[in-house]
């Protein structure tokens, strides 16, 4: 437990490793043990994160361990691995490859060792399944670039990997997505609207694939509790993957844990402004500002998203 009974949700975390847990419906401050007890009956526990935030990844590992103590039948599902790399994940869990081989073979995220190693190692050491839940990166990239029709051009064996109705949607999610992109890019012309629409369908492909993979894991391990780690946009406000889980399996019970960045100039935790983000909230410090110089930021973003010369999709302009 990272804070005592004398602390409350208005006590700002002192380091980037710390969190403050709260029940979103009551505002009650929770210890890790109390949270685990409240989550004990959930079929699926979705832990949203800000990618690369130390407190988020530490809390995910602590929740995984606390829930295992209550229910040893557990499955770890991860956005951070794509379904076409499931064999590489399984090979590592079974001892057929070493960690560096696993990282290379699974196309693991660059921050794997710092952020996700504890989750995978806990599962490996306890013989628990790990589900590579995300859609294949090439499919997501090409849908985002050329549109949802890209899936129709895929070979039958690749189409068979995907969920039925891979672009199932919810109106509230589209509204949130559009509002987020509009705030970043301003008013959109026709070309921008087409790009936004394609990007949204790529997002839906991720969410529907993750929902489908979680449900497949439930079917394969009906007595197990599923822990799913994901970027918070995919789960907060019970939208994205969570909404699609409920659409595909209305009777499944899903608990959502969402991060809230504690504003640097706030004296109290803004619980009332964030109650709808999840069933439970964890308050964390903001990460440092990446750039002050706008020109350097623009150059860095351009380099980050520059398309490799061999990165092509059917329908790309010559």
Using DSSP, what is the number of strands?
Answer: 8
Number of DSSP helical runs: 12
Coarse morphology = globular
The overall average pLDDT, rounded, is: 90
Class based on secondary structure composition and strand pairing:
alpha/beta
Proportion of residues in β-strands: 5-15%
What separation lies between the terminal Cα atoms?
A: 57 Å
* Major sheet: arrangement of strands: 2-1-8-7-3-6-4-5
CA-atom Rg in angstroms: 20 Å
Helix content: 40-55%
Pfam families: Cofac_haem_bdg
Region (Disordered): 296-318
InterPro entries: Cofac_haem-bd_dom
Keywords: Lipoprotein
Structure description:
This protein has 318 residues and is an alpha/beta fold. Among the domains are: 45 residues; 93 residues, no CATH class. Helices cover 43% and strands 14% of the residues. It is built from 12 helices and 8 strands. An 8-stranded mixed beta sheet has the order 2-1-8-7-3-6-4-5, with helices on both faces. Helix 11 links the parallel strand 7 and strand 8. The N terminus is likely disordered. This is ChaN family lipoprotein. It comes from Marinobacter salexigens. Keywords: Lipoprotein.
């Amino acid at each position: 437990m990272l804070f005592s009974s004398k602390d409350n949700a208005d006590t700002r975390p002192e380091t980037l490793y710390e969190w403050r847990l709260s029940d979103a419906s009551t505002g009650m401050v929770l210890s890790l043990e109390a949270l685990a007890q409240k989550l004990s009956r959930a079929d699926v526990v979705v832990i949203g994160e800000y990618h690369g935030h130390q407190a988020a990844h530490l809390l995910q590992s602590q929740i995984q361990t606390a829930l295992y103590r209550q229910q040893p039948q557990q499955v770890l599902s991860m956005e951070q691995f794509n379904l076409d790399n499931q064999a590489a994940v399984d090979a590592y869990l079974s001892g057929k490859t070493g960690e560096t081989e696993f990282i290379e073979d699974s196309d693991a995220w660059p921050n794997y060792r710092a952020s996700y190693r504890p989750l995978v190692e806990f599962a490996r050491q306890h013989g628990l399944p790990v589900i590579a839940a995300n859609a294949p990166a090439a499919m997501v990239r090409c849908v985002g670039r050329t549109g949802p029709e890209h899936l129709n051009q895929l070979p039958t064996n690749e189409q068979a990997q995907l969920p039925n109705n891979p672009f199932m949607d919810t109106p509230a999610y589209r509204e949130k997505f559009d509002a987020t992109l509009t705030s970043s890019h301003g008013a959109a012309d026709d070309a921008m609207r087409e790009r936004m629409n394609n990007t949204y369908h790529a997002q839906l492909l991720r969410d529907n694939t993750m929902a489908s993979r979680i449900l497949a894991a439930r079917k394969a391990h009906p007595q197990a509790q599923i822990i799913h780690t994901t970027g918070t946009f995919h789960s907060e406000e019970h939208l994205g993957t969570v909404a699609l889980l409920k659409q595909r399996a209305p009777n499944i019970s899903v608990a959502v844990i969402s991060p809230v960045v504690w504003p640097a100039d706030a004296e109290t935790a803004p619980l009332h402004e964030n109650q709808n983000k999840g069933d439970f909230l964890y308050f964390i410090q903001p990460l440092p500002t990446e750039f002050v110089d706008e020109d350097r930021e623009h150059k860095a973003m351009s380099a980050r998203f520059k398309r490799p010369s061999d990165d092509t999709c059917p329908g790309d302009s010559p």
